[in-house]
Amino acid sequence: MVDVTEEEMDKPTFKSDTVLSDVHLYCPNKRHLMVRLNAVGQPVFLSYFKLLWNTEDLASEKHVREAITEREHQYACGDEQCDEDRNNQKKERELNSEGLQALLDDDGDLEVVRRPRSASDLEAEGLLRDRVYPVILMKGKEDAFEDEEQECTCSDVVKIEHTMATPLEDVGKQVWRAAFLLADYILFKRDTFRCCLVLELGGGTGITSIIMGTVAKRVYCTDVGEDLLAMCEQNVALNKHLLKLGRGEVKVKELDWLKDEFCTDPEVPYSWSEEEIADLHDHCTVIMAADVFYDDDLTDALFRTLYRITHNLRKSCTIYLALEKRLNFTLRHMDVTCEAYSHFRNTLNDLENLQDRKMKYTVEPIKLDFCQFLIYERIEQLELWKIIAEQLT
């Protein structure tokens, strides 16, 4: 028996701040190889994300989209096939209603089955649902990926180590949808970013920087936390095959938005050299960030960092910000709101209206009508913004 004090009983036994990215839920039966535990004991997985480079892949993706659009149009127009579907749905509802009646007793009360029925009984009644879950493979079973690797050539696969569920402070270790959106735009506008020097803020797993590294000359992928930066560096190493094709380079560095200066202490992992800082200030023309707007204080810190860095650049630059509007029900409003998004928009407006003699910031949204090169759900809550930071003097 374990003695538990009254003080320990009052402590919460679980935390509710664990968050999970939707990226892996979109392909629920995808196989994921668990390669290790990170420094804080979180499982680290290795996933393969296919790039739809060739025309056949893009045509397949387009075909799926067109099929969905055509189906929506048919329902709106009410063709014969849709009438048949509606009749089938009506019959199904009637059958469900009859099934519900069978569960009512003589007084009309619902009879609740207190004990779960066996799987065989459910299967006999046709009530057994398919189980959907990721297949997690332990290290040492890499051969399970053999078929998948054979299907994908070196030039069309991004390999990413990541976690699947983390506390809020470790969300950078997951792969997020807005990062895929920004990666799509980079691949769609390859010529725009060719041979550029790029800075990514809040790079996380590094997937967007890796995609940018296929076209840009050099990318500084930045974030905070030694464990996260080590994961990011590992991902860069896993995708050397992609970077070689574009002859690009990705450097993983620490950049803390809550600090005013770059870390230059050579004893600190992922610190900056004076030569690297000068390289950034002299040649950077693109800054990007994806899915980093979920906390008001961090949003403020990011925009302060953008303001400080753009003032120190020798050239004008373009900033790309990708994000997902997340709806939350709050007790304060007693309604569904997007508080983090609202704060982002207000801060974005403040930056554009800033009276500054050295810099002018022009903000514009980017239409999401460009090709999709990665497989994910491009939901309507995704947004991509472009900020032109123009040097006036």
Spatial sequence of strands, sheet with the most strands: 9-8-7-10-11-15-14
Helicity level: 25-40%
What is the helix/strand order?
HEEEHHHEHEEHHEHEHHEHEHEEEHEE
Shape: globular
What does this structure look like?
The chain is 37% helix and 22% strand. It has a domain of 221 residues: Vaccinia Virus protein VP39 (Rossmann fold), CATH 3.40.50.150. About 9% of the residues have low confidence. It is of the alpha/beta class. The strands form 4 sheets. Strands 9-8-7-10-11-15-14 form a 7-stranded mixed β-sheet, sandwiched between helices.
Task: Furnish the topology, listing elements before pairings.
Layout: H1 6-10, E1 18-20, E2 31-37, E3 43-50, H2 55-77, H3 80-102, H4 119-124, E4 135-138, H5 146-151, E5 157-162, E6 165-167, H6 177-188, H7 190-193, E7 197-200, H8 207-213, E8 218-223, H9 226-238, H10 240-246, E9 249-254, H11 274-283, E10 284-290, H12 296-312, E11 317-324, E12 328-330, E13 335-337, H13 339-352, E14 359-365, E15 382-391
Parallel strand pairs: 2-4, 7-8, 7-10, 8-9, 10-11
Antiparallel strand pairs: 1-6, 2-3, 3-5, 11-15, 12-13, 14-15
